[in-house]
Each structure stands twice: as structure tokens, then as C-alpha cells.
Design a protein that fits this description.
Layout: H1 2-17, H2 23-32, H3 37-119, H4 125-219, H5 277-285, E1 307-308, E2 312-320, E3 324-331, E4 337-344, H6 348-367, E5 378-384, E6 387-393, E7 397-398, H7 399-406, H8 414-433, E8 436-437, E9 446-448, E10 455-457, E11 464-465, H9 483-487, H10 493-509, H11 519-530, H12 535-539, E12 554-559, E13 566-571, H13 580-585, H14 593-609, H15 620-624, H16 627-630
Antiparallel strand pairs: 1-2, 2-3, 3-4, 4-6, 5-6, 7-9, 8-11, 9-10, 12-13
Length: 634
């Protein structure tokens, strides 16, 4: 016994002295064999990533299995309840039928007994008594059977009622869940509807402006200004606008802007809701209003002189859009340099949209840290009183204001248009490289520097990733909306290219290319200029029935001028009736040969951009290599 005990102790001691080979030690041995410290760290990270991925996969598989099991159990329970209900209804129907048969039989027996007793006058009293007793016994027996069946019927009816009550509760619960889901959908739809109404209002105002421009142009063309070299000029054969090349760094604005830009980051800006100094003192005096930072729509109440995030002092208000309001501020931590702060509305849907915009802007900044591709630079973000705030570089004005100031009704010089076009193509190239669609390109969403040489694409509130597009006929502003969006086709980067092409046209002519009042009117104007939309493009559209019949004939909807009622005109053939070159030249006379050459090159580029079939539109690389962009004016 003692020997065996000692032998066991020796073996245990040997086992303890043996080196353990756990997974971690094996990984350490493998790592120590490498002399490169970076390789060691990378190996550990890969191992941890594999373990995490495996755990996550197992967790997801387990959750999926549990969900499937619960779903199957619920379906089986519903099936059993349906079978049980059907069986109860069948039993109830059979019992009811049996009771009716018994009642009919009792009635027939009672009538036969009455007739036999009345016809047998000569029968003895004993036989009459025995017959009456038999009848009574039968009646009593029938009553007992009938009562028993009625009782069973009541019990079954009670069970059916209980089943119905239980089923009713289940249905009510389902209806309640559906109401909650419908409420959420309605809130989203209401918000989208508000956005569409804002867009429609903006588009109506633009169309009114276009009508007023046409009336003014009939009277007299205003005299063109002779501006300095640092500003874009209206088209004049005597003087040229400055040539602008792609800069290597961002130009910082150092002086305050004289005029506010009403549409710097979003569409439809309203007047400034700034709180005056008197109102600020009233807020300080009234303690009940100190936390009333938002208005009824969730917009932040901006206060002049207020400090945001302990560093940005607000000194001006830019405007208010659908998603946010924008203020101008000075960064006290960087020598009072000027910035723009976009304050997102305090609303769940708007905050999600702001987070998406922040994600897109951060991705673009990471891809273009030196800001060479002309997308607005996001400095940072922060949260101020439950509002997401985005801090951007400060620029002077947008292209809508540039057109109004330097080229009203006549447009900008072809030299300036060429420079701006080149920069916008670079911006689109950066978006495509990162798989992003802007989906709201227009002059209002393109900012320029103080010297009007450099531009930046801004307002990424409607941006989305190319693999997450949603078909809707009201995406982008109507005048710059591509035909594939209106028809309900799946769109891509070519939709942004269309918007850029229509913006180029507007910069040079000073007029909107397709000023349609509705989507149907937009398609009519597009076809008047470019011919009928190809049938293969129409067939793919989810909303083609709103604009075309089964034979692919266009249904033009317009209001009759006499009856003032809406009428539909079927157009089997639409031939282009506009010469783009003639429109571009307009009333310009005595153009030099060099200017005429650039205008012709511009027409050729527009011809390749504004094509109704999105697949056939020019690529960005080919556009950048086009003669209009490559060849400078002498």
C-alpha cells in the first residue's frame, strides 16, 4: 500500500512538472518566434478578430434558430386553434340538428296519441289509464333527454364563446401592434410629405421667378456689369472672367460676409428667427423660459453672442432649411476664424438624417484630406442642447447668388463656366470613388470662395450610398431631376451628372433648362429638346403608367386655356424642336472666333450629358478630357 502511494505521488509530481500547452501559450510561442513586433501585434489582432467573428456567428445562428422555433410554434398553435374551432362548430351543428329531430318526433307521437284516444270510445277505463301513464312516462323521458341536450348545448356554446373571446383578444393585440407600426409609418410619411411640400413650394417659387424673368427679358435686357478680375462676369465680348484651376488647398475667408446666403446648406430658407438682445434679457429674467431652446418645429432658437460647445461665438444667421438652421460663428480657440455651424432639428427622423450626412462627410474628408476635390470640408461635430451640430468651413455665397449678382438673365462668361464645370466634375469623381450619390445638386447647393474662383459642393442631407437607393419620383429638386427618377427607374451616379449638366446650362444662359411645373411637364420639355424617351427606358419605370400608355405613347397633361380643365393629349411622336447651340448663343452678337469655339465645345459636352438614356451619358473621365475642359481660352 505504501509503495503504491509513493508511486502515485511520484507520478503526480511528474504531471505537475510537465509544461502546459494552452491556446494562449501556443500563440505566445508562435509570436515570440517572430522578431518583428508589428507582426506579433498583427497576429494577435487577427486571432482576436477570428474569435470574435466566430462568437458573433454562433450567437447569430442561435438567435435565428430560436426565432424560427418560436415562429413554427406560433404557426402550429394557430393551426390547432383553427381545427378545434371547426370541430366545435361541427359538434354544435350536429347537436342542434338532433334536438330538432327529437322535437319533431315528439310532436308527431303526441298528435297520434290524441287521435287514438278520441276515436276509441268503447275502450275500458283500465286500458285508458294505462295508456295515459305510458304517455306521461314517454313525455317525461323525452323532456329529460331534451333538457340534457339543451344543457350540453349551453356548455358547448359557452366553450365556443370563450374560444371566440380568446381569439378576439389575440386579434385586438394584433390590431394594436399594427396601429403602432402604422403610426410610425405615418410619422415618417408625414415628415416626407412636409419635405415634398417644401420642395414643391420652392419649385413653384422658382417657376414664378422664371416667368417673371421671361416677362422682363421681353421688355429689355439689363446692362451688364464690368466687375473686377476676382469676380465672374456676365457674358461680354470685351472682357473675360478669370481662369480658375483646381487649387491645392482651401482658401479661408477672413472677413465677414456683407450679405447672408439664404440657401447655404439646404433648400427653402426663411427669415432669421434670431432672439434679440431685449428678448435675451427677458429670457434671463423669466426663469420659466430658460430651457425653452427649441421652437414648436424643433428648430434651435439661435441667440447672437451665444457660445456653442465652449468655443464658437455666434455672430450671424445664414438661414433655415427643412433639416436644420445654419449660423455663422467665430472659433475662439483658433484666433476667431470664421466657421459655419449647421444645427440639425431636434427630431428623431432629422437626427438620423443628420447622422447619415455626418457619416458621408466624414468618409469624404477621409478620402480627400487636402480638400482637392471640391466638396465642402467638415471640421468636426458636437451636440448642443440635444441638437447635432456640424462645423464647416465658411464660404462667401452660393452660385444662385453669383448668378443673380453678376449674370442676371444673361449668365456668366464661358471662361468662368468652364472653370466651375471642371471643379464640379472633380467633386462627382470623389463621390463616385466612395460610392456616394448627392441627389440634390443645383446652384443653391454649390458655394464659392470670396474671390469667386473656387467652388465647393455642399448640403449632403439627401445623399445616399449607391447600393441603398430608394425609388421615388420626388427625389432632388424638380428643375434638376433626372428623367429616370421621374419614371421610377433604378438610378445611379448618372442622375447627379444630369443635375450637373442642367446647372452648367443655367450658369451660362442665366435661365433654367427645364422649368416644368410638374413631373409630366418636365418630361415634355425634356423630349421637346432631346426627342422621345426610348421605349426600353420607359418600360423599366415603376411610374411609367402616370406618363405613358400601353403603346408607349406619351400622355401630356395640361390645363385647357378656354375651359380651364385638365386635359390629356396623346403624343405618338415627339421630335426635338430646340437647337441647343442657338439657345446658348442667344442674343450675344459679335462673338469672337475663340468664344464661338468654346461655346460650340460647351454645346457638344451638354449634348453628351443631357441624354435621356442614362446608360449612354458621358463618363466623368471622358468629360474631364473633353475639349471644353482641356482647351483653355487664349
Amino acid at each position: 500500500m505504501r509503495r503504491s502511494y509513493e508511486r502515485d505521488r511520484v507520478e503526480d509530481k511528474k504531471e505537475e512538472e510537465k509544461p502546459t500547452t494552452s491556446d494562449e501559450e501556443m500563440m505566445d510561442v508562435e509570436l515570440h518566434e517572430s522578431e518583428d513586433e508589428d507582426a506579433i501585434i498583427a497576429a494577435r489582432r487577427n486571432r482576436l478578430a477570428e474569435v470574435s467573428a466566430k462568437i458573433e456567428a454562433e450567437k447569430n445562428a442561435k438567435l435565428e434558430a430560436e426565432n424560427n422555433a418560436k415562429l413554427e410554434a406560433a404557426k402550429e398553435k394557430e393551426r390547432e386553434e383553427a381545427e378545434k374551432k371547426a370541430a366545435l362548430e361541427a359538434a354544435l351543428e350536429a347537436a342542434k340538428k338532433k334536438v330538432e329531430e327529437e322535437e319533431a318526433k315528439n310532436k308527431s307521437e303526441s298528435s297520434s296519441s290524441d287521435s287514438s284516444s278520441s276515436s276509441s270510445d268503447s275502450s275500458s277505463s283500465s286500458s285508458n289509464e294505462s295508456d295515459s301513464e305510458d304517455d306521461k312516462k314517454k313525455k317525461k323521458g323525452n323532456k329529460k333527454v331534451l333538457n340534457k341536450k339543451i344543457q350540453e348545448k349551453k356548455i358547448q356554446k359557452k366553450k365556443v364563446q370563450e374560444e371566440k373571446m380568446q381569439e378576439k383578444k389575440i386579434q385586438e393585440k394584433k390590431i394594436q401592434d399594427k396601429k403602432v407600426a402604422d403610426k410610425k409609418k405615418a410619422d415618417i410619411k408625414k415628415m416626407n410629405g412636409g419635405l415634398e411640400k417644401r420642395k414643391e413650394k420652392d419649385e413653384k417659387e422658382d417657376s414664378k421667378k422664371e416667368d417673371s424673368k421671361k416677362e422682363d427679358s421681353k421688355k429689355e435686357i439689363p446692362e451688364k456689369k464690368d466687375d473686377s478680375q476676382s469676380e465672374p462676369k456676365a457674358k461680354t465680348p470685351e472682357k473675360d472672367a478669370p481662369e480658375a484651376e483646381v487649387p491645392g488647398k482651401v482658401i479661408t475667408v477672413k472677413e465677414a460676409v456683407a450679405e447672408a446666403a439664404p440657401d447655404i446648406f439646404g433648400e427653402q430658407f426663411s427669415e432669421s428667427p434670431l432672439v434679440s438682445v431685449a428678448n435675451q434679457s427677458a429670457l434671463r429674467d423669466n426663469p420659466t423660459l430658460t430651457d425653452n431652446w427649441d421652437d414648436s418645429d424643433g428648430y434651435y432658437r439661435v441667440r447672437i453672442g451665444e457660445i456653442l460647445d465652449k468655443r464658437y461665438q455666434v455672430y450671424g444667421y445664414t438661414g433655415q432649411g427643412v433639416f436644420s438652421n445654419v449660423v455663422r460663428a467665430r472659433d475662439q480657440t483658433k484666433g476667431d476664424s470664421e466657421v459655419c455651424v449647421k444645427i440639425i432639428r431636434n427630431n428623431e427622423i432629422m437626427e438620423k438624417s443628420g447622422q447619415r450626412e455626418l457619416e458621408v462627410l466624414a468618409k469624404l474628408r477621409q478620402a480627400d484630406p487636402d480638400s482637392k476635390y471640391h466638396c465642402l470640408t467638415l471640421y468636426r461635430s458636437f451636440t448642443h442642447r440635444n441638437h447635432l451640430c456640424l462645423v464647416f468651413e465658411s464660404l462667401s455665397m452660393n452660385l444662385r447668388e453669383v448668378l443673380k449678382k453678376f449674370g442676371k438673365d444673361v449668365g456668366l462668361h464661358v471662361k468662368a463656366v468652364r472653370s466651375y464645370s471642371q471643379q464640379l466634375f472633380f467633386a462627382l469623381k470623389l463621390l463616385k470613388k466612395n460610392g456616394i450619390l448627392h441627389m440634390d445638386i443645383k446652384p443653391d447647393n454649390i458655394l464659392v470662395s470670396e474671390n469667386k474662383v473656387q467652388l465647393k459642393l455642399c448640403d449632403f442631407g439627401s445623399a445616399c450610398y449607391a447600393n441603398e437607393v430608394e425609388v421615388t419620383p420626388y427625389l432632388a429638386s424638380r428643375f434638376y431631376r433626372a428623367p429616370e427618377i421621374i419614371l421610377g427607374n433604378r438610378y445611379d451616379y448618372n442622375a447627379d451628372l444630369w443635375s450637373v449638366g442642367t446647372t452648367f446650362y443655367e450658369l451660362y444662359t442665366g435661365k433654367i433648362m427645364f422649368p416644368g411645373k410638374t413631373n409630366n411637364d418636365m418630361l415634355k420639355l425634356m423630349q421637346d429638346m432631346r426627342g422621345k424617351i426610348p421605349n426600353k427606358v420607359v418600360r423599366k419605370g415603376q411610374f411609367k403608367d402616370n406618363h405613358f400608355d400601353n403603346n408607349m405613347n406619351f400622355l401630356h397633361m395640361e390645363v385647357d386655356k378656354v375651359t380651364e380643365k385638365e386635359k390629356i393629349t396623346v403624343l405618338q411622336q415627339i421630335n426635338p424642336n430646340m437647337d441647343i447651340l442657338k439657345v446658348l448663343i442667344g442674343k450675344q452678337k459679335n462673338l469672337s472666333a475663340e468664344q464661338m469655339r468654346k461655346v460650340t465645345q460647351f454645346r457638344d459636352l451638354l449634348d453628351k450629358i443631357v441624354i435621356l438614356d442614362p446608360i449612354k451619358r458621358i463618363s466623368l473621365n471622358d468629360a474631364l478630357r473633353s475639349p471644353f475642359i482641356m482647351e483653355r481660352m487664349k
